[in-house]
Amino acid sequence: MNKKSVFLIVLLVLSIFSMFILLYLLGPGSSKGKDVSFIVTEGESLHEIASNLKKEGLIKSKKFFLGYVVLKNSKEVYAAKYDLNTNMKLSEIVSTLKSGGKNADEITITFKEGLNMRQIAKVIEEETDNSYDDVLETSSDEEYVDSLINKYWFITKDVKNKQIYYDLEGYLFPDTYSFYSKSVSVKEIFDEMISHTGKKLDKYQDQIKKSGYSVHQIMTMASIVELEGIDKNSRKDIAGVFYNRLNNKMSLGSDVTSYYGVKKDMTSDIKQSELDSINGYNTRVSSMAGNLPVGPICNPSLVSIEAALKPSKHDYLYFVADKNGKVYLTKSYATHNKVIADLKNKGLWFEW
């Protein structure tokens, strides 16, 4: 074998070996598939990032990583939180780091359906740097509320009724939201939630106009239905009862409005004098006959808003739910009382 042939063979072997090394370095840091929450802090150098990637088992070589990002012109890495995995290839890791990731201080807050403003204030106080009082004050900040009235079609001057406890009650859509950090302001949180409400309500705008009720009244009805029913069908049935009572100039007789009127949660004890108290919300009193409360009593879900817009068509005037959530509709007060007595006898009556 001549020298030229030997040289070609050695060159081929070296090429194959180099290819294996290259594939090895470009491959996953580990085959174990471990999730890694990788944080890049402000001012951190590429060398520091490479060291941390190697320490987490995400890359095979610091030097190769540095050479790769220079070659690919991917040297810019943002300070953020990145969700990585040890079985990601080098190209995937670099691409993810270049994408911007998540803010390391980002927070996620979930507001459940049916929370009232006081309950929302507690959640915000727990999850952010804002206080309970900050939330309640912002909810009725006149200048802020006026700016929202000018911006959104569904927030009207009805929310500024002096009897309303919290102007923005009912307009903060329940959902899960992400914010840049715990230092987020109450207004920024409200802006996001109200904007989301708008996106949900926009497609119902014509339907609301044709309903014979204002958007504020629809949101008020939806908030009551939210707390009285447990599912789509029961809420539509309950909405039908309430509309029938309004049309018959009857009071709604809703306990949830009585509790809200005295600023108590449904899990609290309530005195008879409180149930009979006169305010803009209590629909158990005769003076509220034929009227809705002055405003929403919670922030309703889309299901309840749809129930307020498309109630069941029937002629029932009373309803009661057992402790399992089943709703019983009746046409007379006497029959209504018989159903309650029967539920109590069967141990199905709900008691706090």
Note down, in words, how this protein is organized.
With 352 residues, this protein is mainly α. It folds into 3 domains: 25-99, Endolytic murein transglycosylase (Dna Ligase, domain 1); 107-202, no CATH class; 213-345, no CATH class. Helix content is 47%, strand content 8%. The protein has 15 helices and 6 strands. It has helices at residues 3-26, 46-55, 62-71, 90-99, 117-127, 132-139, 142-151, 186-201, 205-210, 215-228, 232-247, 255-261, 272-275, 302-309, 333-345; strands spanning 35-40, 80-85, 107-110, 176-179, 318-321, 327-330. A two-stranded antiparallel sheet has the order 1-2. The protein has a two-stranded antiparallel sheet with strand order 3-4. A two-stranded antiparallel ribbon has the order 5-6. The radius of gyration is 31 Å and the shape is elongated. The mean pLDDT is 88.
In N-to-C order, the SSE pattern is HEHHEHEHHHEHHHHHHHEEH
Please state roughly what percent of the residues sit in beta strands, choosing from under 5%, 5-15%, 15-25%, 25-35%, 35-45% or over 45%.
Answer: 5-15%
Rounded radius of gyration (Å):
31 Å
List the total number of helices. 15
**Helicity level, as a percent range?**
40-55%
The beta-strand count equals: 6
What class, by secondary structure content? mainly alpha
The oligomeric state of the chains shown is single chain
